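Researcher: We're teaching a course module on how sequence relates to structure. For the next exercise, students receive a sequence and then see the predicted structure as tokens, so they can try to spot secondary structure elements on their own. Here is the exercise chain.
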Amino acid sequence: MVMDKLGNSLQDALKKLVKSGRIDERTVNEVVKDIQRALLQSDVNVKLVMEMSQSIKERALKEEVPAGASPREHVLRIVYQELINIIGKATDVPLKPQTIMMIGLQGSGKTTTTSKLARYFQRKGLRPAVVCADTFRPGAYQQLHTLCTKLNVPFYGEEGNPDAVGIVERGLKELQKNDILIVDTAGRHSLEADLIEEMENIHAIANPDYKLLVLDGAIGQQASEQARTFNESVGISGVVISKLDGTAKGGGAISAVCETNSSIAFIGTGETPEDLERFEPDRFISRLLGMGDIKSLIEKAEETLGEEDIDMESMMRGKFTLKDMYKQLESINKLGPMKQIMQMLPLGGLGAKIPENAYQDTGDKMGRYRIVMDSMTEEEMLNPRLIGSARIKRIARGSGCTADDVRELLKYHKMMQNAMKGFRGGKFNMQKMMKKMGM
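Model: And here is the predicted structure for the students to work with:
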């Protein structure tokens, strides 16, 4: 999950609102202090935190509560809006032919992010290609070449040639038939003059449509200096915050965005090529506060799953077999780690925190179900009613599981089958469901 520690701290702070009998000045001050502490511990700029705190206090105590909302809901909405204001708008990188220049310090995750960005555009149906202009770091060429080969993304580089500017010029010409041209430039351990000069020369040759600065999510307050220097040199179109997983504080990188006069374009949330998300402030804050992110989950499913993954027509007719459920579990597995999926669901948000081990338990259970079904016959998969006590024992022996595991699977299937029957008689209206959830 993105910034677990900050998310948990903010959710704990807001629980005081949920549990409070009435909303008064004392309650608001306590909540604001807890929010301040959470943000400062995550390296968010002090000035930004203080400005936001003052705004929350004034709005919570002076603004009239909207019709139909409780004072509690009013304050929660204010906190949500003010957190979004800290981040500002997102940089929208359009899905059209363009050249993108990647810049950042060494160790920021720039090369990995370059391959993730190529994969992002690939998933959207475009043809990305990558130019390796990092001639400084040993292994940069091999790393990027390997990543692009795995993704089947066209790659250009000249291993051993220190002429980064020449490589970019030749690479862009070689790959010009592709839609998206991504140039990965060299990083350094600090903002050295030769890095800045090389970057400016590459910029002049590439004439990129977008210049994306990659900032390490764990960098802290020094991110501001980096962002300011890079922006003064070539101008920053948007920021990519990398390594923004559960352990990263992230606040320093987020705060530094204001130094670039731009905004966040993408966030990196894991190790795989799929773990790069287009940044949307409202969705980001919603997940941070434990309110879920149904829209992103739907988009992820649309990008990842094909029509062959789930036979919706059959399921809508109520013919939800064990074979259908097996496909469903495989589809869930394709979407990513169970923790990542479940945290996109609004499972109660403030006050309904899921224990850390529950994610692992759920993932293990889904895996165990698949193993049990692997020991069933085709006939049993299509008609679970055939499975009596004798067959349960046989399936348990064949799968290395217990008879209780088999019974639990059958019970889960029955529950899912009943849920599918509830959708019969009309198409499931996802928009209506999202509206009910307040998304």
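Model: If you want an answer key for the exercise: The radius of gyration is 25 Å. DSSP finds 20 helices and eight strands in the chain.
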